[in-house]
Amino acid sequence: MKPMIAVLGCAALLSGCAVTRVEPPTAPPLPAQWYAPPLAHQGSTLELTQWWNRLGDPVLSDWIARAQTQSPTVASALAQVSAARAAVAASEVQAGPQVAAVASVSRGRMDAGSPVGNALGAGLQASWVIDLWGGAAAETAGARARQDAAGAGWHEARVVVAAEVAQLYAAHRLCVAQLAVASSDRDSRAATARSTAVTEKAGLTAPAVLALAQASHAEAQARTQAQTEQCERQIKSLVALTALPEAQLRAQLAQNPGWRADALPIPAVQAVPADVIRQRPDVYRAQRNLVAAGEAAGAARALLLPNLSLSGSWLRNRFSASSGSTTFNTWSIGPLSLNLPLIGRGALNANADAAQSQYEAAALAYAATLRQAVAEVEQSLVTLSGLQQRQTATDAAVAGYVQSFRATEARHRVGLANLNELEEARRLRLNAESSAIALQQERFNAWVALYLALGGGFDPAQPQPTP
Description:
alpha+beta, 10 helices, disordered N terminus
């Protein structure tokens, strides 16, 4: 066993000659502040993993968790994490010494003067390709960087699924609100059509006025039916995302009918861009891909240089024959082989150039990802700021049109307003109420966009997911 230890010790000493690998790149400069309107209240970057719980809706939180477990995108991302982890393990094994247990059995005559006997042997064989130039270490570091990137991709997939479920959930809740507005308008027009029919029979209203009232009622019925179909389609999509039985899904929707998207807390983002951007998995993935590309370039250059390999063995042997048996050890250190590729260096040079080009492309992609991340955060802040200002004006418009419609309706009952005036007031009220609900949808979508822009709670320091 001592010779085997000597083999490994020599290889370890030679491996200390490894050259320095490619240094991790520095991040491109980011702006020192946000160039976006400040939001209405003070605050800091939120704990993004708790965003959905802040809505106070356990149904939504449960559906997000279910959708993530059923999502093929998340499962594929987790499979990539497993593959990356296996690649790291394989790279670490290849970079170290290879030791194998061997055993052999044979029967025969050793030479013309020896009797027939049995030969048994068992022991260890070792080999190590010495990492003189750091190529193997670079491959291992690149594999670890790709594993980190895969973990960030897994988190990003979960964040996207959560946002998709939340947006569809909010869209359905607001669709139901729109349906309530449309149903109320339909019932109001039906009452107007019935009263107009009575006055027309009494000869107090022209047939053309009755036709207008009936047409208005029919239009409201069509609008209500279209809204109902839209809500039903959204339920089907939610069933597909969450894998819940439709009956159970409808029952859970009925548990919280008073949900309002305009009650969402709007986060203020006061941290500087560099601090916020660290929470984005796509930025972290781009940075780790850049590191992996740099390590791959170093490993490709190392293939152009001589490589050194060392092998050795230690065996315990036993030979038995009719004349007796003997036991002895055999061992060897070497050969120590130096290999320098001569023919085919053109292909190695081309591979090194290609790896360098990929590294430069990854650097540009990383810088572009950083710029895009800053732009998305600022765009979300601008949108939310504008929506807050629009909310006040929309609320005032709804209140005014509702009051105008009620006054016109009262005048119409006593004959002081004609049907055209009533329909115009009804149309204005309907548009205002529909716009208010659409603004809630827009506000929620902008809120989700900010959640995505801030990374959805990603933390590079968190442990990798376990497949």
